[in-house]
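anyone seen this seq b4? input:
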Amino acid sequence: MLENAQIIHEQGHAKFAVIEFQEYLSIKELLSSVEKLEDYLDYLHIEQVKQQELNQPRFTMEQVKQQLGINSTL
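predicted toks r here
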C-alpha cells in the first residue's frame, strides 16, 4: 500500500503525497473501523514475522539430533 505515491515538494520539503484514487478509497475504508485496522495491523505483523523466519538458518533433523547428542538410530 502506498508504494506508488507521488511526493510533491515545496521549497525542498515534502508537502503532498498523491495516490491512486482506489488506494485512497481502500485506506479510507481501512480507517473507518477499528476492527479492520486491527486486522490489517495483525496482517502486517504476520508478514514481518514470516520475513524474519525466512532469514533464519534452517537445520535438518539429523543436525538437531547431532547438536543435542541424541542417537539417530532407534
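Residues 6 and 50 are 29 Å apart (CA to CA). The radius of gyration is 23 Å. kinda curious what u guys think
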